[in-house]
Automatic annotation (TrEMBL):
<dbReference type="Pfam" id="PF05195">
    <property type="entry name" value="AMP_N"/>
</dbReference>
<protein>
    <recommendedName>
        <fullName>Xaa-Pro aminopeptidase</fullName>
        <ecNumber>3.4.11.9</ecNumber>
    </recommendedName>
</protein>
<keyword id="KW-0645">Protease</keyword>
<dbReference type="GO" id="GO:0004177">
    <property type="term" value="F:aminopeptidase activity"/>
</dbReference>
<dbReference type="InterPro" id="IPR007865">
    <property type="entry name" value="Aminopep_P_N"/>
</dbReference>
<dbReference type="InterPro" id="IPR000994">
    <property type="entry name" value="Pept_M24"/>
</dbReference>
<feature type="domain" description="Aminopeptidase P N-terminal">
    <location>
        <begin position="8"/>
        <end position="144"/>
    </location>
</feature>
<keyword id="KW-0378">Hydrolase</keyword>
<dbReference type="InterPro" id="IPR029149">
    <property type="entry name" value="Creatin/AminoP/Spt16_N"/>
</dbReference>
<dbReference type="InterPro" id="IPR036005">
    <property type="entry name" value="Creatinase/aminopeptidase-like"/>
</dbReference>
<keyword id="KW-0464">Manganese</keyword>
<keyword id="KW-0479">Metal-binding</keyword>
<comment type="similarity">
    <text>Belongs to the peptidase M24B family.</text>
</comment>
<dbReference type="InterPro" id="IPR052433">
    <property type="entry name" value="X-Pro_dipept-like"/>
</dbReference>
<keyword id="KW-0031">Aminopeptidase</keyword>
<dbReference type="Pfam" id="PF00557">
    <property type="entry name" value="Peptidase_M24"/>
</dbReference>
């Protein structure tokens, strides 16, 4: 089966499974299901997106797949098993090629591969051997899922059929494992960032007064897809003028006017890995003095944040420290005064009038990736760094964002260091 991206070495998934298996209690079996293909209406469906957990552990990027990990299984061939939808000539003609058993081994490094029709029989025999069963629910701090997933249906079914087993949660293990990236993963994220750079450079020479936000979106998707990306890692925000003050503005349907700024929060995916970038650029290729003043203030905040995205810090402490940085910058800009700070509500400090979101989140297979926020930052975690000031009264907002890898000591490594960021760099590229 061919994917758009270059095949990832199966050694990555072998490593990931080993790390996961080491965290299980003795006599434990863990099960992971692919995502559903979601219907739209009539016979149309959404494009398939693989469940990131089964992808992380197997590299299998197709629907109706099940992974079973059972490190203490009596028979060695039962310690890792993939169940796949059986492929045939009819499926190949109508839907395209699906993984064969040999290809599944190449992708995942898992030797034991069965068709899905054998699942119930084989799973039942494994359950008689297992005492603990690790099931997988999304426990991300931002998750708000209303849809019943394939995983949810499986959990109901297995608990009804085997009520006497001891049930455990896989997700806390995966939250920790997935938050620390392997070198191969960092290379995939770097590639996603490099594709994003190509898109940004393309649109910097494209943007001029009168262009529409959706035309900018079209330039980006063109550049992303021709570089083997499936497209945007998340819904793009292309927000000119006052639209920038709507944090999740995704309509992208306004015309860009001379003198305005455009806030672009866009990133390409590559091989299911995300990138996440924000730049705020002038429609006419030149910032006004006031726009430049705010922009440079936000850029200083981003540099200050770099000093704090270091091993040993943690997410909560980092955000508290950044609040002090914002307060100091906003005082200098005259947007808040000392009285505002003295009288502030500790739950909603004065700076939050102009900067109301977090500065940073884990990033990886998901744009808002797994990670336990109370854990210390450690080497090879990947974080965004995205300060912003939003000033509706002045008709613009500025956010600047790059993606960083935590190092064992010292400053983080910027995966987006090659993308124009200063006022001068952006103006130069736009006017060249």
């Amino acid at each position: 089966m061919t994917t758009k991206y270059e095949q990832i070495p199966s050694s990555l998934f072998v490593k990931n499974r080993k790390k996961f298996a080491e965290k299980l209690l003795p006599k434990s079996l863990a099960v992971f299901n692919s995502n559903d293909i979601y219907p739209i209406s009539a016979d149309s469906t959404m494009p398939f997106q693989q469940h990131r957990d089964i992808f992380y552990l197997s590299g299998v990027d197709q629907e109706e797949s099940i992974l079973v990990i059972f490190p203490d299984a009596y028979l060695e061939e039962n310690r890792e098993i993939l169940f796949l939808r059986e492929t045939n000539d009819h499926i190949a003609v109508w839907e395209g090629e699906k993984l064969s058993k040999d290809q599944a081994y190449e992708v995942s490094g898992i030797k034991t591969v069965y068709w899905l029709s054998d699942f119930d029989k084989i799973f039942k025999s494994l359950m008689y051997e297992a005492e603990n069963v690790y099931l997988n629910k999304n426990e991300h701090y931002r998750s708000a899922v209303e849809t019943e997933l394939r995983e949810d249906r499986f959990i109901k079914k297995v608990q009804a059929e085997f009520p006497m087993h001891n049930y455990k949660r896989s997700n806390p293990i995966l939250q920790r494992l997935r938050s620390i990236k392997e070198p191969e993963e960092l290379a995939l994220i770097q590639n996603a960032c490099n594709i994003t750079e190509k898109g940004i450079r393309r649109l910097l020479s494209f943007v001029k007064p009168g262009v529409w936000e959706y035309e900018i979106e079209a330039e980006l998707i063109h550049e992303f897809v021709r570089n083997r990306s499936k497209g945007f890692a998340y819904t793009p925000i292309i927000a000119s003028g006052n639209n920038a003050n709507v944090l999740h503005y995704i309509a992208n349907n306004m015309q860009c006017k001379e003198g305005d700024l455009i806030l672009l929060d866009v990133g390409a995916e590559y091989a299911n890995y995300s990138s996440d970038l924000t730049r705020t650029i002038p429609v006419s290729g030149k910032y006004s003095e006031r726009q430049k003043e705010i922009y440079n203030s936000v850029l200083r905040c981003k540099v200050e944040a770099e000093d704090r995205l270091v091993a040993g810090n943690n997410w909560h402490r980092f955000h508290k420290e950044m609040g002090e940085v914002y307060t100091s910058e906003l005082l200098q800009l005259g947007l808040i005064d000392k009285a505002d700070v003295q009288n502030e509500d500790p739950k909603w400090p004065a700076y939050k009038k102009y900067m109301m979101h977090g500065t940073s989140h884990h990033m990886g297979l998901d744009t808002h990736d797994y990670g336990i926020l109370t854990d210390d930052f450690v080497e090879n975690m990947v974080f965004t760094n995205e300060p912003g000031f939003y000033i509706p009264a002045e008709g613009f907002g500025v956010r600047i964002e790059d993606d960083y890898v935590i190092q064992s000591s010292g400053k983080p490594f910027n995966l987006m260091a090659n993308i124009p960021i200063t006022v001068e760099e952006i103006e130069d590229v736009m006017n060249s």
